[in-house]
Amino acid sequence: MRIVNTPGPPTGLRRMLWRLPIRLYRMGLGPLLGRRIMLLTHLGRVSGRPRQAVIEVIEHGEHGYVAASGFGPRADWYRNVMKTPNVTVQIGGRIHQVTAIPLSADEGATVMARYAPRHPAAARRLCKIMGFAVDGGAEDYREVGRRIPFVRFTPRAGRTTVA
To answer: Is the predicted pLDDT of residue 47 greater than 90, yes or no?
Structure first.
């Protein structure tokens, strides 16, 4: 694994394209995006106002949903949920009240090593976006997982609704 560059969050037209799925969710078309794309509603760390981001679900199970901050710890959504971890996620037509919990570097390595063989094309694309060159081996993906922040969104009891 090599670090090729350290990209910042998208700006201009790229930002607008990255945020396009938010509009689909707002129009009630979130289920069309499948179960791997979630709408995160959180509070701005400075303004305190509601903010939204669409992020990929890397893994899900009985302990919640895991996502990676593809633009590292500088991503606004990541900084916001670290300050105020009680957030809402919508996956398809279901809305969940969750708590955002950062994963350790070792946990991130394990998650990324599990994700890459299940979704090889998406894993390569994700690494490229984040500025990593990988050879496709498990150790490369583990190293990437150690270097990017992962967050587990754990459901709060009895807090799921249908959109």
So the answer is: yes
